[in-house]
Amino acid sequence: MASIEMKHIVKQYGDGYPAVNDVSLDIADGEFMILVGPSGCGKSTLLRMIVGLEDITSGDMIIGGKRVNDLAPRERNLSMVFQNYALYPHMTVFENIAFPLRLSKTPDDEVRRRVNEASDVLELKEHLERKPANLSGGQRQRVAMGRAIVRQAEAFLFDEPLSNLDAKLRGQMRTEISRLQRRLGITTVYVTHDQTEAMTLGDRVCVLRKGKIQQVASPRELYEQP
Ligand code: ADP
Ligand code: ADP
To answer: Domain ABC transporter, which positions (predicted)?
Structure first.
């Protein structure tokens, strides 16, 4: 687990208006932070700079007390959960969850132990031999989160993970993500443009507009605002 500190982060693509324009934000260890705002306000760009998929034009990104501006994604030990889950269709649930451990050449018995532990928390134990095509949307989401858990990542990063789901499943998954985050106590940054997600999931909500922070507040403070 780790805190995430952003200090005067700027992202300039080409010579237009900066996509992210002097963003400073501290996310505490174990905190669930929502990034919300209209399309094009810089949410994904900010998230990708945290993970390391996008270079930072200026400012400092500090994760777990360490400046990571120049670290590649795999050196940051964060885990991004994508909208489409990025599961491998030909692999079983077990192998999908184990994938990051295979990449790092973790010994077999250790892989089994960690996948079992994760699938316990995620209630995927009965589904380990199935393929993603035979899972529900919610189960696929949990497999994607399982990958993050086995890696013992320092933080979860979500980029609109529920936007492809129907309303009912979205509701279920909201509950599930919230429950898991609290159970694991893992620092989480969650991008959405959905008001309900923003108001129900996070400890705090950061509202972005045109690359700048407009407001950072708890859902309650936002709700009670005139
Ligand atoms: P959001 O996630 O809030 O929809 P983005 O971070 O995707 O916003 O985009 C912020 C701004 O940066 C937008 O104006 C977008 O067009 C621009 N942008 C995003 N990615 C790129 C890129 N790779 N090259 C140029 N401009 C980009
Ligand atoms: P999202 O809505 O999920 O942010 P987008 O459609 O905005 O997705 O962006 C998809 C991809 O296109 C991203 O990799 C982003 O960096 C890139 N992109 C977005 N806007 C631009 C742009 N103006 N110029 C070049 N690439 C862009």
So the answer is: 4-226
pLDDT digits (tens, 9 = 90+) for 107-162: 999 999 999 988 988 889 999 999 999 998 778 888 988 888 888 888 999 988 88
- Compute, in angstroms, the gap from residue 19 CA to the centroid of ligand 1: 6
Tokens of 68: 């990571």
Task: Answer whether 76's CB lies under 8 Å from 56's CB.
Answer: no
Residue ID of nearest Cα to ligand 1 atom 18: 19
Beta carbons within 10 angstroms of residue 131's beta carbon: 16
How far is CA 115 from each of CA 57, 76, 121, 153, 175, rounded to the nearest angstrom? 38, 21, 10, 14, 23
Tens-digit pLDDT profile for residues 23-33 = 999 999 999 99
Provide residues with CB under 6 Å of ligand 1.
13, 19, 37, 39-45
